[in-house]
Design goal:
The N and C termini lie far apart (about 50 Å). Strand 4, helix 7 and strand 5 form a beta-alpha-beta unit. This protein is globular. The chain has about 400 residues and is α/β, with parallel strands linked by helices. It is built from 16 helices and twelve strands. The strands form two sheets. A seven-stranded mixed sheet has the order 1-7-6-5-4-2-3, with helices on both faces. It binds pyridoxal-5'-phosphate. The site of pyridoxal-5'-phosphate has 15 residues, from helix 4.
């Protein structure tokens, strides 16, 4: 569809039409999936990764593919970004962007609590490459100012963050980051573009694990980075083409199809999660519940300002959580006891603070205290699906 029309369209219309191309051969209403890895090209085609233009011919799928391009244009439109680049997974998107932005001797400020793989990559690989990674609690902006007393180039935040659902004020953080001449990337997997648009709030890059809500059906893995055309082109040339972490056109097609219903799904995930969170808050065996939509969330005011809906992720705490986890695994009929999130099916998983500390976060002092405030001995992370909320509540009620 005409890009200038898409730009002005409502997000629901974008989810359906952005990036969609016509099937020129058979005039099908839905574009066919293009699995071809190579394309018949002109004899004078340029093979330079520098000459990648959106209107350029497709040459080879690692450089670009019609089905993948459709998905990239759709996500760019949803995030109000100029361009986007899809990857084989959320981790490939995050590590790809970091490899592009950080060189030996650089310093990066990274969420002290985030998706485990990201912290582990910072602790291990980036450190080995002589890149200093400073873990920070981004809900405390004074710490960020202080961290900039030494120059840093790149800032990576996640909001709401995994697993504790603490929020970052993107607008305020972007102001600090830009004042110090750095760039800000936000992992918005938990929020989705239906809740928050980080680029509009000042971030330079927004990242999604499309494995989660964007795909939405638990059947494909993918990641994406959206931002300015210049930066996305550079990322495509250096990282995607040379490191080869591209998404399969088949997975791109599944995720593209999933995104069509993202607006409706996110509304149901959020409405269901609000009902379940209220039920949990009133349950005698539950000691604490965190959901950005509840007034009891420590940053509920920021959630109201920054999130158009509160998504489907809830955490809660119980006494003797390991016994409770075993009981739930055995008794729950609807919830699957599994990692991951953002699927049509409801999922639950227990995350022990001790284990996370040892393997991943290694927090100390005030940062550890703040983590414990949200997580205690450990949290049950719940991804609320699209089932009937009454059935979900009954399932939990008979298993807690
Ligand atoms: C799952 C997840 C990732 C990693 O994505 P994969 O697609 O599993 O590689 C990154 N960030 C967040 C917030 C996630 O939930």
């Amino acid at each position: 569809m005409d890009p200038s029309f898409i730009k002005k369209a409502n997000i629901k219309t974008k989810a359906v039409h952005a990036g969609e191309t016509k099937d020129k051969r058979y005039t099908g209403s839905i574009a066919d999936i293009t699995m071809s890895n190579t394309f018949s090209v002109d004899t004078d085609i340029s093979f330079s990764a520098e000459n990648l233009d959106e209107d350029a011919q497709f040459i080879y799928t690692r450089w670009g593919n019609p089905t993948i391009q459709m998905l990239e244009q759709k996500v760019a439109a949803l995030e109000n970004g100029e361009a986007a680049l899809a990857f084989s997974s959320g981790m490939a998107a995050i590590t790809g962007l970091m490899m592009q932005k950080l060189k030996s001797g650089d310093r990066a400020l990274v969420s002290d609590v985030s998706y485990a793989g990201v912290r582990e990559f910072g602790n291990d690989m980036l450190k080995d490459l002589n890149i200093e990674v400073v873990p920070l609690n981004f809900s405390n902006l004074e710490d960020v100012e202080k961290a900039f007393e030494k120059p840093a180039k790149f800032v990576f935040s996640e909001t709401p963050c995994n697993p504790i659902l603490r929020l970052t004020d993107i607008h305020a953080l972007a102001e600090i980051v830009h004042r110090h001449g750095a760039e800000l990337a936000v992992d918005s997997t938990f929020a989705t573009p239906m809740a928050t648009k980080p680029l509009e709030l000042g971030a330079d890059y927004v990242i999604h694990s499309m494995t989660k809500y964007l795909g939405g059906h638990g059947d494909a893995i993918g990641g994406i980075v959206a931002g300015s055309k210049r930066e996305i082109n550079a990322l495509r040339s250096n990282i995607s083409i040379h490191m080869g972490s591209i998404i399969s056109p088949f997975n791109a097609w599944l995720i593209n199809r999933g995104i069509v219903t993202l607006p409706m799904r996110m509304q149901v995930h959020s409405d269901n999660a609000m009902k379940v969170a209220k039920f949990l808050e009133g349950h005698p065996k539950i000691t604490k519940v965190f959901y950005p939509g509840l007034p009891s969330h420590p940053q509920h005011e920021l959630a109201q300002k920054q999130m158009q809906l509160y998504s489907g992720m809830i955490t809660f705490q119980m006494d003797d959580p390991k016994t409770a986890a075993r009981r739930m695994k055995e008794k729950l009929k609807i919830f699957h006891y599994a990692v991951s999130l953002g699927h049509h099916k409801s999922l639950i998983f227990y995350i022990s603070t001790d284990e996370m500390q040892k393997s991943t976060f290694k927090l100390q002092g005030a940062q550890l205290d703040d983590y414990l405030k949200y997580a205690g001995e450990g949290v049950f992370r719940v991804s609320i699906g699209l089932e009937d909320p009454g059935d979900l509540i009954n399932d939990l009620d008979s298993s807690l």
